[in-house]
UniProtKB/TrEMBL annotation:
<dbReference type="GO" id="GO:0005886">
    <property type="term" value="C:plasma membrane"/>
</dbReference>
<dbReference type="GO" id="GO:0003924">
    <property type="term" value="F:GTPase activity"/>
</dbReference>
<comment type="similarity">
    <text>Belongs to the small GTPase superfamily. RasD family.</text>
</comment>
<keyword id="KW-0547">Nucleotide-binding</keyword>
<keyword id="KW-0449">Lipoprotein</keyword>
<dbReference type="InterPro" id="IPR001806">
    <property type="entry name" value="Small_GTPase"/>
</dbReference>
<keyword id="KW-0472">Membrane</keyword>
<keyword id="KW-0342">GTP-binding</keyword>
<dbReference type="Pfam" id="PF00071">
    <property type="entry name" value="Ras"/>
</dbReference>
<dbReference type="GO" id="GO:0005525">
    <property type="term" value="F:GTP binding"/>
</dbReference>
<dbReference type="InterPro" id="IPR027417">
    <property type="entry name" value="P-loop_NTPase"/>
</dbReference>
<keyword id="KW-1003">Cell membrane</keyword>
<dbReference type="InterPro" id="IPR005225">
    <property type="entry name" value="Small_GTP-bd"/>
</dbReference>
<protein>
    <recommendedName>
        <fullName>GTP-binding protein Rhes</fullName>
    </recommendedName>
</protein>
<keyword id="KW-0488">Methylation</keyword>
<keyword id="KW-0636">Prenylation</keyword>
<feature type="compositionally biased region" description="Low complexity">
    <location>
        <begin position="194"/>
        <end position="204"/>
    </location>
</feature>
Length: 216
C-alpha cells in the first residue's frame, strides 16, 4: 500500500504504517465502528463528525503496525476534503447501513470516486447495523455481497458496531487485502491517540489481492 513502510531497525524490527479512510453516508455508523474497534465502546447517542484522525498501534510478531484511521463526514459534502482523503489514504472502508438502501447507493458513488482517482487500492465494503431486523428500505444481503465481492472484487463484511459483531474482521480483511504478513488478532494491544487532521501525499500503491466476504 502506498504508505506501507516496512523497514528494518537494526536488522530486527519491522514497521508498517497504513492510513485508512472510513467513508459513507451520514449516520451509517462510521464513527461507531472506529470507536468499537479502538476502545471497545458503543454510544447510542449520535454526534455528527466533521473529520477526525485516530491512531492505533500494535505489536504483532515483531512487526510494529501503525493504523491511522480517518473518520469522515457523512452529512455534509466537503468535496475538497473527500478528494484529499481519497488521494492520501492507502486503503478504504466504505460503510452503508443495512437498513437503508440509499446508503448503499452512496457507497457505489464513493467507490466510483475512489477508482477514478486511484488505480488499485484495497477497499472493504461494510454493511453495518446487522443487529437491526430488515425492513422495506433494507439492503438485500446477498445482492450487496455479490456486488461487492464479485463485481467490484472488494472485501465485504457484515457488521454491527452496536453488538461488536465482525468489527475486528473489517480491519483484518483490509490488512489481508493489503498483503499484511500477519493476521490482526482481536487481543492485540490497543493504543489510541487523537491526531491533527492534516493529510500527507502518497506516491505508490500496493496491489489489491484476493478479496473475501464475511457474512454473519
Ligand atoms: N442499532 C445500531 N445502531 C448503530 C450501529 N452503529 C451505529 N449506530 C447508531 O447510529 C447512529 C449514527 O452512528 P455514527 O457512528 O455516529 O454514524 P456516522 O456514520 O459516523 O455519522 P456521521 O458522522 O454523521 O457521518 C448513532 O446513534 C449510533 O449509535 C449499529 O451497528 N447498530
Ligand atoms: Mg461520524
Amino acid at each position: 500500500m502506498s504508505r506501507q513502510r516496512i523497514c528494518s531497525e537494526g536488522g530486527a524490527e519491522k514497521e508498517v504504517h497504513y492510513r485508512i479512510a472510513v467513508l459513507g453516508a451520514a449516520e451509517v455508523g462510521k464513527s461507531s465502528i472506529i470507536s468499537q474497534f479502538l476502545y471497545d465502546r458503543f454510544n447510542s447517542e449520535y454526534k455528527e463528525t466533521v473529520e477526525e484522525l485516530y491512531r492505533g498501534q500494535y505489536n504483532i510478531d515483531g512487526i510494529r503496525l501503525t493504523l491511522d484511521i480517518l473518520d469522515t463526514a457523512g452529512h455534509h459534502e466537503f468535496p475538497a476534503m473527500r478528494k484529499l482523503a481519497i488521494s492520501s489514504s492507502d486503503a478504504f472502508i466504505l460503510v452503508y447501513s443495512m437498513t437503508d438502501s440509499n446508503s448503499f447507493d452512496e457507497v457505489k458513488k464513493l467507490r466510483e470516486d475512489i477508482i477514478a482517482q486511484r488505480e488499485k487500492v484495497p477497499i472493504v465494503i461494510v454493511g453495518n447495523k446487522s443487529d437491526i431486523s430488515s425492513n422495506v428500505s433494507s439492503v438485500d444481503k446477498e445482492t450487496a455481497a455479490s456486488i461487492a465481492c464479485v463485481d467490484w472484487e472488494s472485501g465485504f463484511v457484515q457488521a454491527s458496531a452496536k453488538d461488536n459483531t465482525n468489527i475486528v474482521g473489517i480491519f483484518q480483511e483490509l490488512l489481508r487485502l493489503s498483503d499484511f504478513p500477519q493476521p490482526l488478532s482481536p487481543a492485540v494491544r490497543r493504543r489510541r491517540m487523537s491526531m491533527p487532521t492534516t493529510s500527507s501525499s502518497s506516491n505508490s500503491i500496493h496491489k489489491h489481492s484476493r478479496n473475501s466476504c464475511v457474512i454473519s
